[in-house]
From TrEMBL:
SUPFAM superfamilies reported for this sequence: DNA-glycosylase (SSF48150)
Molecular function in Gene Ontology: 4 iron, 4 sulfur cluster binding; class I DNA-(apurinic or apyrimidinic site) endonuclease activity; DNA binding; DNA N-glycosylase activity; metal ion binding
The organism of origin for this protein: Chitinophaga caeni
Protein name as annotated: Endonuclease III
Gene3D superfamilies hit by this protein: Helix-hairpin-Helix base-excision DNA repair enzymes (C-terminal), Hypothetical protein, domain 2
Length: 215
């Protein structure tokens, strides 16, 4: 199977079985999504979704969050991984958005990565989720799954993987392909003992072909 055929198979499979794949983070607007994605770094979406309601109740807008102090915000996110850094990042992000972007969450990757706590992956998530820009956020799930299936080849870094995925997925599929790969990695192609027995990608998967190849 060529790489092109592999991509075509993966797209067909997910369009049939996960046509409405989307982020599992709960949000109502770009501000809430940005807060949730910053908090989600090295933390589960489930934990983030348990934490954000109290934040949004106390700070319903980015302008409100910009006035928060570390002492006020930290207790609300202390159950999240790296709460000290994330508290400072959230307040710094809110101040910058309020002061430099008139309270509007930026909608481009170059602008977003200027914000405290926002790296390339977070910026790609925000832009692809909010208005379906063809940006591919590569987290540990996407990196692992794309390599196992064979969608990426010898990608040593997340940026190398991102470039290969963006190059090979049709532009109008990139935003949803991000969710396809994350959810597949979260529930089927898990890090240890992937659930190959229930995986519909097997016919196109290099990893499965390798482990089932006769000795």
């Amino acid at each position: 199977m060529t790489k092109k055929e592999r991509y075509e198979y993966v797209i067909r499979y997910f369009e049939e079985h996960a046509p409405d794949a989307e982020t599992e983070l709960i949000y109502d607007n770009p501000y809430q999504l940005l807060v949730a994605v910053i908090l989600s770094a090295q933390c589960t979406d489930k934990r983030v979704n348990m934490t954000t309601p109290a934040i949004f109740e106390k700070y319903p807008t980015v302008q409100d969050l910009s006035t928060a102090t570390v002492e006020e915000l930290f207790p609300l996110i202390k159950s999240i991984s790296y709460p000290n850094n994330k508290t400072k990042h959230l307040i710094g992000m809110a101040k910058m958005v309020t002061e430099e972007y008139n309270g509007e969450i930026p909608k481009t990757v170059p602008e977003l990565i200027k914000l405290p706590g926002v790296g390339r992956k977070t910026a790609n998530v925000i832009t692809s989720v909010i208005d379906h820009q063809p940006n591919m956020a590569v987290d540990t799930h996407v990196f692992r799954v794309s390599a196992r299936i064979g969608l990426t080849t010898n990608a040593k870094t997340v940026l190398q993987a991102e470039k290969q995925l963006v190059q090979n997925f049709p532009a109008d599929k990139i935003h949803i392909a991000h969710h396809w790969l994350i959810l597949h990695g979260r529930y089927v192609c898990i890090a240890r003992n992937p659930k190959c027995g229930i995986c519909g990608i097997r016919p196109a998967c290099k990893y499965y072909q390798k482990i089932t190849k006769p000795a």
